[in-house]
Amino acid sequence: MTDPFQLQDRTYIVTGGAQGVGYALVEFGLSRGANVVMVDINPAQLDDAAAHLDHPRLMTFTADVAVEANVEAMVESTIARFGDVHGLINNAGIVRAAMAQEMALATWQKVIDVNLTGAFLCLCAVGRRLIEKAERGDPNPGRIVNISSDAGRRGTIGQINYGAAKSGVLGLTMSAAREWARHGITVNSICYGVVETPMTDTIRNEKFRDRYLRQIPLGRFSDAAEVAPATWFFLTDAASYITGQHLSVDGGFHIAA
């Protein structure tokens, strides 16, 4: 019997893959037999990550996900290297903190451009290829996972741009799931809580750390390796009848008062 959790010989793109959660996602996918395209805007970090992983099924690609031409080239290069694309983890994101009344428009727009518009561009670029496969008769054309956040479900303080973008990702997920279900393409989202990564350095001082920890029933932040398996689950055949869903991997933060 075929293992529904196996990803052997399938090809997936992971954006924001050179560090933190993205790196853990790449590493997990490779461990399950997938070909993985690790995408990041920082070529030096990509080179370092690729050297550390040193894997024959890994491809790197430098791209700004907020630039449509970069995203199209990312998908074309993936197909040129591996012959196909089976899915996407839309993980690229940035944080630019400020209270709402003090936030410059440029600060708002930069986060929206990367975290929401970038997710849209990647979703559409990969989605078009998956639809083409479906129209050629492929019964399992592919799957997409968008990385959102509990900030998009509960709101956040000091990062209204990030919260708005991640809430938008939830709407993006549900709308794409509705549109593409007819093609057999599933689209789901993962909502992380606070993960111990370089991007969360801003909340590692004692004041903010204690405030967040009090709201997490499990009483700790997660490790990047803990969120990777749940994310990849949505890309496996075991999740073939799941679409338009949001899964929080957050130690219970989303249910805390």
UniProtKB/TrEMBL annotation:
This protein's UniProt keywords: Oxidoreductase
Annotated SUPFAM superfamilies: NAD(P)-binding Rossmann-fold domains
SMART domains found in the cross-reference section: PKS_KR
Protein name listed in UniProt: 3-oxoacyl-ACP reductase
Gene: fabG
Keyword Signal among UniProt keywords: no
Molecular function as annotated in GO: oxidoreductase activity, acting on the CH-OH group of donors, NAD or NADP as acceptor
PANTHER family associated with the record: 3-OXOACYL-[ACYL-CARRIER-PROTEIN] REDUCTASE, CHLOROPLASTIC (PTHR42760:SF40), SHORT-CHAIN DEHYDROGENASES/REDUCTASES FAMILY MEMBER (PTHR42760)
Organism of provenance: Sphingosinicella microcystinivorans
Domain called Ketoreductase: residue spans: 10-193
GO biological process: fatty acid elongation
Family affiliation: Belongs to the short-chain dehydrogenases/reductases (SDR) family.
